[in-house]
Design a protein that fits this description.
about 150 residues; alpha+beta; 4 helices; elongated
Length: about 150
């Protein structure tokens, strides 16, 4: 699994997952990244205040758990829910010519292929705790040359 994504600038952006969601977006390796840290922190805060149960926040899909266990990139960040294990990053790509369910990127070479694609794709990095099933969208960035 690869975690060589461009550094992100914090900004609030409405994200559309429609078929033309990436039109007009710069796909350079140094820009266009959206972080979801504020939403993550809000969910963790609500859990710690008791407004959300562990069942509400630790609900990773079995396929996401399988990807996290087998090809996830380990981080040094401790899980904010169980505080017992580090979170891992799993990267998915969605776009023309890819399966409707997306493609899980398992190596730096696969991400490099996404950057070389003619059409733009949307890449999503999800953080997952394999101990308690916590998961949250970490960031999104476009890849590919985007030439039509």
């Amino acid at each position: 699994m690869v975690d060589e994504t461009p550094p992100c600038r914090v900004s609030l952006v409405v994200v559309s997952l429609g078929p033309r969601a990436l039109e007009g977006i710069s796909t350079s390796p140094t820009g266009g990244c959206v972080e979801y840290r504020l939403a993550r922190n809000a969910a963790v805060r609500e859990f710690k205040k008791g407004r959300l149960s562990r069942l509400d926040v630790c609900d990773a899909h079995p396929e996401l758990m399988r990807a996290a266990q087998n090809i996830g990139v380990s981080t040094e960040d401790e899980c904010p829910i169980c505080e017992a294990a580090p979170v891992v990053h799993v990267t998915f790509a969605f776009g023309p010519g890819l399966p409707a369910s997306g493609r899980c990127l398992s190596s730096p070479g696969e991400l490099a292929k996404m950057w070389k694609r003619k059409d733009a794709v949307a890449c999503y990095v999800v953080e997952v705790c394999v101990a308690c099933r916590w998961n949250h969208l970490d960031r999104m960035f476009p890849a590919g040359r985007g030439i039509r």
